[in-house]
Amino acid sequence: MRSKKILLAAAVIYFGVTDAQQSQYFSQKENYRFGLAENLYQTKIYNASQYEYARQYFYNQNLSRSKKEAAQFFDNVIGVILQKNHAEEGLTAFIKEYPKSAYFAQANLPLADYYLAKKDFKKALQTLKKVNQYQLTKEENTQYIMKLGYAKFMLGDAKGAIDALEEAYKTSDGTQKGDIAYMLGHLNYAGRNNDKAFQYFDSIKNEEKYSKLVRPYYVQMYFNEKDYDKAITEGNALLNEDISESYKAEVHKIIGESYFMKNDYNSAYPHLKDYLAVQLNPSENDLYEMGFVAAKLKKHDEAVSYYNQLVNSNSALAQNAYYQLGNAYLEVGKKQEALSAFRSSYQMNYDKGVKKLAQEQYAKLSYDIGNPFENASQVIQNYMTENKAEADNTEMKSLLVKSYLYSGNYRETLNAIDRLQNSTPEIDKIDQEVSYLLGTEEFNKGNFDEAERFLLRSLEFNINKEFNSRALYWLGQTYYQKGNYPSAIVRYEKLLTETFPEKQQLPYDLGYAYFKSKKFDQAQKYFKQYLANPKTEYKSDAQLRLADIDYANNDLDAAIAVYDQNQDATDYTLFQKAMALGFKGDNNSKITNLKSLISKYPDSEYTDDAQYEIGVAYASQDDFANSSDFFSKVIKSSSDRDLVANASIYKAQNLIDQNQNEKALAEFTSLGQQYKNTQYADKIVQAAKPIFTKNGDVSGYVTFARNLGVNVDASEIDEINLSTGKQFFAKKDYKNAISYYEKYLTQNPTGEGLYQAKYELGESYYQTKNSTKALLVLQEVGNVANDYQDDAQTRLAQIYIAQGNSSEAKKYLESLVNSSDINIRNYANVEMMKIYAEEKNFSQAEKLADAVISNNKNSAAVIETAKVIKARSLMNAGKDKDAQSAFAALEKSSNTEVAAESLYAKAFYQNKAKSFKTSNETIFKLANNYASEEYWGAKALVLMAKNYVGLKDNYQASYTCDQIISNYADFPEIVAEAKEVKKTIKR
Questions:
Q1: How many Å apart are CA 561 and CA 867, to the nearest integer?
Q2: For 334-347, what is each residue's pLDDT tens digit?
Q3: Do residues 551 and 535 lie in contact, with contact meaning Cβ atoms separated by under 8 Å?
């Protein structure tokens, strides 16, 4: 039994020992694998290390708590280092579970490497700061400092990076020292610390690894140090190396800029050109620099192309670029485009020096070619105002005066001269000539008071002798038109020994002045002198005036002889000859000649007068039947109220001469009702008087007269008031005339001369500038049939026109177009023509314009107005060829508004024909010569914008539209058109 127990015990012991040995073996094996995981981690064999740590964590049941924590930690850390999915989440979960784990310190360097690789420099720096440097080897410490410097550098802490890298540089060995030197060189270069940058780069420039990397730095640093020769030498050497295209472009730039700084633009040009050739988005400075170099080399078109790329910015560089762009445009002859560029430059305030230069060029160019955006004179004035230190600049003063002169703005020319402190002979000459031009311009407009003022100013100078003589001549013409014939004669006679363009016409003018002064002997002398060398178109008129003088002097035979010489010329000569024959008592010849007039000129304005005079001639021969027949013709066909009334009265008188008194009285009574309260009522009363006096019927006469509104018992006071009022009125002393007419009309509200008094009172109010009272009184005359109705209506129309009340004026003008007075009728036609034109009723306006143009008795200014209106009508009707011809004939008008509109029309049709450049040239001519005509200038700018669209110059088109929108708010319809044009411009 004992042996069995021993065997059992031995078995127990064997198995027990064997089991214990096996347990110890496994324990040692797991400890070995855990140690293996640690060794693998330290040697950075991360995949194998992570495998062992994970195995320990998940399968080693005997793992201590401490080691389990370590295994979990390093498993997650290695996962992060190897950038495995969800590794960071696992590490984050571990940190929450073990926030104070001692293992964090061992993972900081690898984690920092991870964050650096991910370019998460902020986390990398935070992790590196947790590393204990004292636990690192010398080599690890150097690596640590390099990483710390790199992280700081990437986060913008250049100083911190330099400090860290300099510390690493001191402790590093040869293999790391080069990398650190390169980084320090770059950091110092970036910080403009060239000395230290040179120091570090010099230490590695000969090493193959760094040579190509550092040499571009040398080129740039030499440039920064302004050692341009070394920069050029080093750069050219580098270009021969095998370097990248981007590096090569930068080197070209530095070499080009070095030459630029040395003012060697020929050498700079190819390098800057090569640099720009590879730049997709060149900087403003690059474009400006290239433009400047191209301009210096006189490659002006190229310079323009570079500067043009800068013009959409707003900066000091752009201001300079605009200025240089303007200069470049000038060099290639594009003055219009230069004007816009200089204007853009001076409107910026970055550089006062450039601003002044640009504004000066802008002002001079505005004077040179005109300015469609602003008045050239105002541009020059602005320059002088904004640069007061230059205010005594005689060149600019002279340009200001001349700009007004050449723009046709004569008034502002004189105003500019008046503002000058000191004049010069050149300015005095301009003063003389401009005053003359303005005087003649106002004369042509019919503004004779203004013409007199300016012509007298011109005569204060005698620098240009011809202008002096012409000013004196037109001053005489002005006095003639004002009815001041003695003053006209004095001026004309001063010119008898002078030579000037109008000299041929001087005797004719003197003849008329003396003729109007009723000094017929002198008038005759000068008309005869004129006829020795007459102008063809005035010869017949001068001869007829000689005949009229003979007629006035009762030298009827001489007058008739002249009329005979000219009887084929006009109906007037036939009429005058007949009247002369009648005065000689040859009524048969008078009748024959008047009948010949009616036969030859059935539409003559003298036809009705001729029929009337035939009636008178027959009556003088007691041929009352024929006499009454011709008076009947006048009554039936004439629109002349005066002739009709006199013919009716004369016809009734014929009945008296035929002893048909009852019939005559019936006629007079009928006429009395028709012409009651008119001047004809007096004639009727006087013509009927023999009927009553013959019968001794005084009371009947008084009753008859009173029924016609004729007061035969007017008081002496009333006669004095009326007579005195008329005297003052005749003398044009309207102020005194008013008081007497008011007294008369107060006492005689329905008395004799009522309508004459009312008319002349209204006229006196008008002449003393009291339009309100004038309207009230003249309306009483104009709205009732009387002798002064036409005159009153004419004045009423003039007042309403002056007030801009076309609708009221039109009411009276429509009545006046049927006036028996040809002058009034013509005036009404002219004004109705203007009103129809304003109303855009071109068809009616054109009809009246044709009538006005055909009447050669109208003034040149009136005929010109009619021609303008007809031209507009033709344009409106789409009759382009006729319209162009009509406007072309008006281009040289002395009226600036007419000339400006004509040039606009020319530019319009050039645009329509797609001659855009030619149209723009016409617009600049308009701007240069007629700057004062802002409306047509603004309209022309819209055309210019359209021209630029047609020329595909969108910048100029857009710029022009912007100027219209900004500067012409007074013309909203033009601004609206500019906005529509701008919408069409492609961006």
A1: 39
A2: 888 888 888 888 88
A3: no
